[in-house]
What does this fold into?
Amino acid sequence: MGNMPFVVSMILVGLGFLALITRRNLIKLTIGISVIEMGVNLFLVSLGYVKGGIAPIYTYAPPGFKEMVFPTPQALTLTAIVIGLATTALMLAFAVVIYRHRGTLDAGKIRELKG
Amino acid sequence: MSVVVRTVTRVILPVALAFGAYVIMHGHLTPGGGFQGGAVIASVVALLVVVYGGARLKGAKGWFAVLEDVGALAFVLLAFLGIGATFFRNVLAGSGGLFGNPVPQPGPNPGDLNTAGTLPLMNWAVGLKVIAGLGSVVLLLSLFGREDG
Amino acid sequence: MKRWLFGAAFLVLVGYLIGGGIWLHPFGVPARDEMDRYFIENAQAEVAANNVVTSIVFDYRGFDTLGEATVLLAAVVGVALVLRKVKG
Amino acid sequence: MVHAPVLAIAVPLLGAFALPLLARLNRRARDLWAAGIAVATLVFGIAVAVQVFASGRPLVYTLGAPSPTASVTEGGFPIRIVLVVDALGAYMGIIALLAGAVGLFYSFQYLVEEEGKTLGTSLLLLLWAGILGLVYTGDLFNFFVFLEITSIAACALIGYRVWEPRPPEAAFKTMVMYTLGGLLVLVSVGILYGEYDALNIAYLSKLITGTLLDKLALGLLLGGLLMKAGAVPAHMWAPDAYGEAPAMAAIVLVANTQAAIYALLRVVFTLFGGALASPGIGWLIASLGTVTVLVAVLMAVVQRHLGRLVAYGAVSQLGYMLLAVGVGVVAAGKGFGEVALKGGIFHMINDLASVGLLFLVVGAIRRAVGSVDLLSLGGLGHTLRWESGFFLLGALALAGIPPLNGFASKFLIYESTFKASPILAAVAVLSSILLLGVGVRAFHGIFLGPKTRDVASSPRGMLVAMGVLAVIIVVFGLFPGFFIERMVSPAVQAILGGRASYLAAVLGG
Amino acid sequence: MRIGSGEGFWSPIVWVILALGVLAIGFAVWLQGRRTYKRGTEQEEPFLSGERLPEGAGVGATHLYWGFAEALKPLLVRLGAFHSGFLGDYVGWLLVLLVISILVVMLG
It folds into this structure.
């Protein structure tokens, strides 16, 4: 059970995919994408954990600390979070415009582009 | 929104702004940085939109667009600063000038605001960008499709 | 038919992802550490910043941050483009 | 010109950031600025290509280091982001440069001021910079970041015509797919980082041994990139996106999709080339490519929306490239594997020229008539003379009719595929014939017949943009050998035998 | 300016010369055509198997491949249903592609 954080974040990714293939509301699809993003971010940030490590910041760090948590995954996660935010914002904007045109958010009804 | 919400907003507003500015300014010393502090200040914009309605803030839309571009330009120009060596070279670090102090002593230390070269400047550029970017997203979404927008 | 196919694919994918989580190094005991060890030990001297994460974000991997700022700008420009006032 | 690789990415970014500010001052200044940025990007991109092809060695640029070549620390491992441009990257960069420059030039007169020309041009520059970064980067996480730049800029551009109901729908669907693809890439970056504590492609390639986790990471990367390249079960976003995007974005989107195929080559041959390049992967890519060709062509037969028709044609061409790449992986050590890769890589630029030309013509028709419904069009050849000629040329090149450029590359693909598997080759040839039928039907339906309406011809700038692509179609068709020798062969060598020199260029020694 | 594939080769210049030759032969044959053909007479009128076409009749773009589309109808109908336009299907098929590629990498 030592790897629970990895497993949990992967389950979160799976839940996001489940939402994407079972839900029909565009807002819920956006939430599904966000859930996957959060799962991946959780996965990334938990990769860098070192047992007993402190935050990788030297300002007023406790003298005589043993380990520091890996800083790279935190930097990557920061980037990934902002990217996820940008994606979500744009998708919501599209959802708003689609609702304006069609009067519905049901993905089952928004399928003019088929065939 | 009700009087309570408006009053609380007025109380929270300066605190949140100061906290955001602090987070941005101390990005190279304490947890945080341009994105985090920018998000804090952008949440103030969101609060204002919720409390007073987007229509009263629509004058800020153009300003946000300009500030966003200015922040991004400042960031990329700071990156161009190092082109003498390589793109993104931190030329100000250790140069002795503004933000050019070395770290007082390696290892744990109280921190010196005057260190880290281009990092604080980049934090400010990114902070400006995030404030303006998130602010304008919130504002645009709240104004869309309204006659007074 | 299609539902079963998607369901099976979903289960296999999640199985592999969870398996990947279990196969990975034990939580808190990274398998290799040369790059991060380098950052922790040298960031203070090279970048003169106390916050190692910030020195990675804006110096060692500054290009990523430029990309990230670009993504944010693209999204904001995109939102402005999508929600603009147009004819009709 | 040491800084050329990074300037080719940073200059269009700078241009895109400053564009809205300039537009507030003066529209003319904005257009001049965009043109100047485009010229500068072309100069830097071509400088990169010239350096790489002249020296024959990959070009390395380390961002933020004391000097551009200081890519590793004393310990011998890279810590900073590097840009690595080998012959394949330089070739793909040229394709991206061509697409971006033509698209930008076309957009000057295609976009209407009141409909958001400033924002559209800005996004186009961002998309261009994103593709160049995607191609030049030598860092896996940086690759993900540029993937996201391209997907967000591309989706915003797809939804450009927000006043119609279809483009936002296409943009939303494409956005979901692109984001999922990017997240799959990110998961596999995370897995590789967790295993090896490295993000540099060359260094990872040295460390990767082929464990189960490596296989999982490769599978996720393959899935995400195949989706982005428009391989069959997950190709449905592509006709939506191409069909609804404005013309100048559609041609850059084609380059974007080809960048996914480039990334596929990079992943299979460079990143996992040492441990996991098995024929099974090659067969997977080749068979998916063949199915893509067949499905896309059959769907193109029944389309009545002109944009979607051309879009399905574009998807079928991507299938040809996947087929060639797959055969190249299957027969990596043999002669016909090299021929297949040559065909596939040469087909990229041919496909960009022919499909791009068709998209530009479709855009011109949409601008002139306001509709792209095949059943309501007809007789446009009386007024749109240049456009009809360009459309015919593009359709014939798409179908691979000699002596146009499409035939030269398809010839190489057919010949090599036949040696790997006659069935796949037969399907590919058959699809090509069907594609000719599709092109002829579309041409007949749009341009021939009695004159039904008066339309104005396209402005000269748009015609020049189309003319550039038409010249490429004819010249590459008549003189393919020159181009293949100078640029395609080095690119193929960079894939097949170049892993060692790629690693050496980054890691030293 | 020829490119080889190991087995055969392709030379556009030779092809163009050959094509010009064939065109020249065709032109020569065309010149031998009937001298009695005159423009502007009933010889120019369109007809279909002996019958005069009704006014306004023409061959539309879709008619060219009507027979072909008819023959492939069962396949095309299935393909049309495959491209349903429903976003859940898009994601589902992406999952299928993903699982296929993971399985291929794992097993082969």
